[in-house]
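> example.struct
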């Protein structure tokens, strides 16, 4: 048995991965080969999001993520008996886009399949999935010829159990997807999905620490005089937020940061002071203690305490209503994280009634904050439409056109 390890020697961007998958599909059609791309990457960094990047490019394909960690045989197909014709067959699950009509003919439609965590599945489910990945058939029935299929797995260095038989390696091409930096996460995910302002400000404030991985710590570790970390204790003290398989986490604080766990944590923050409703039943606000408890259990206590500090900072800011009421004289936030949170809260509350006073206030902020405003609005179709019809914004945009050069036009890289 071999670990899914350093078969791929370089990390490449999400955009490059998408292009590699498409090139591989062309090569398969040209040569009749069975090679398939397997994407390796750190846990929680969004490998499955490649599915939706492909779906944006091929809107007529139905996209599905197959989670091999929980799949069983019955999740692929189930027995079907035709009593009149006295035959037995298998009915396939709908996400393969393959079915049999009343005449017994196989019909299909194009799909995009991400076989996620392929090598975490049970042996029998892996054996069932391999013909789908390699031969594009399921129980002998071919997928639509325009279907796109790829697999994912974790890096061997993470020690989360991804292993496979040696002979399988030559049937896959392994590529490593580059971990997100904090800025990439904000530009390509957080702004688009309206992550809470506190979360965005926290990421930008701690970009370097959140962008580190245990692979970076490996490079810093050793006995050489130029190495920054000498011991495992040094390693843990340097960055105890991230997942580090080289260091044992305490049993009472075993959670850690990934971009996935951080996104989950941020979804709780808006309920700190505001309640909600579930099926008509009112839910009271969490408050500080209950929110802290949820954050501890999602990203780990050490990082959660730091994030709560940012959350409490909001209490010191001038309310949005006071900014709109007196934009020329209201107290300005400090530069940095404070400005970012004010900008994000302003954008969240921006509408046709308050856009003019907001633009007056915006002119008083730093150019860096104004650039963040431009980027955030670019990422939101709703805000773009609102701003494009406002004379005060268009006048500001002409003067500050250079700020829009900060916008990343390349998508999820």
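> example.seq
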């Amino acid at each position: 048995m071999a670990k899914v390890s350093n078969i791929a020697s370089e990390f490449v961007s999400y955009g490059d991965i998408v292009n590699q998958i498409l090139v591989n599909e062309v090569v398969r059609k040209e040569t009749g080969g069975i090679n398939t791309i397997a994407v390796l990457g750190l846990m929680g960094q969004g490998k499955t999001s490649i599915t939706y990047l492909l779906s944006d490019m091929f809107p007529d394909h139905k996209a599905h993520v197959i989670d091999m960690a929980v799949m069983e045989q019955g999740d692929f197909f189930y027995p079907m008996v035709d009593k009149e014709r006295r035959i037995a067959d298998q009915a396939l699950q709908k996400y393969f886009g393959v079915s049999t009509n009343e005449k017994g003919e196989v019909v299909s439609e194009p799909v995009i399949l991400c076989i996620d965590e392929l090598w975490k599945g049970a042996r029998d489910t892996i054996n069932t999935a391999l013909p789908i990945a390699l031969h594009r058939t399921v129980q002998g029935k071919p997928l639509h010829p325009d279907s796109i299929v790829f697999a994912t797995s974790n890096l061997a260095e993470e020690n989360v159990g991804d292993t496979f038989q040696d002979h399988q390696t030559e049937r896959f091409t392994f590529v490593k997807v580059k971990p997100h930096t904090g800025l990439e996460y904000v530009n390509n995910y957080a702004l688009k999905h309206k992550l809470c302002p506190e979360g965005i400000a926290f990421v930008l404030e701690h970009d370097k620490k959140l962008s580190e991985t245990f692979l970076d710590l490996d490079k810093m570790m050793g006995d050489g005089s130029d190495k920054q970390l000498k011991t495992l204790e040094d390693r843990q003290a340097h960055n105890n937020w991230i997942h580090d398989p080289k260091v044992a986490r305490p049993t009472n604080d075993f959670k850690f940061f990934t971009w996935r766990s951080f996104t989950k944590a941020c979804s709780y923050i808006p309920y700190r002071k505001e309640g909600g409703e579930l099926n008509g039943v009112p839910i009271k606000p969490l408050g500080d203690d209950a929110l802290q408890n949820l954050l501890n259990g999602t990203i780990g206590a050490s990082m959660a305490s730091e994030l709560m500090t940012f959350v409490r900072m909001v209490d010191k800011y001038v309310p949005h209503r006071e900014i709109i009421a007196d934009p020329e004289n209201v107290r300005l936030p400090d530069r940095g994280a404070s400005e970012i949170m004010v900008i994000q809260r302003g954008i969240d509350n921006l509408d046709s009634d308050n856009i003019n006073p907001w633009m007056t206030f915006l002119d008083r902020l730093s150019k860096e904050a104004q650039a963040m405003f431009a980027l955030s609005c670019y990422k939101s179709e709703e805000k773009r439409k609102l701003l494009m019809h406002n004379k005060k914004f268009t006048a500001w945009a002409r003067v500050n056109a250079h700020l829009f050069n900060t916008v990343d036009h390349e998508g999820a890289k």
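> remarks
The radius of gyration is 25 Å.
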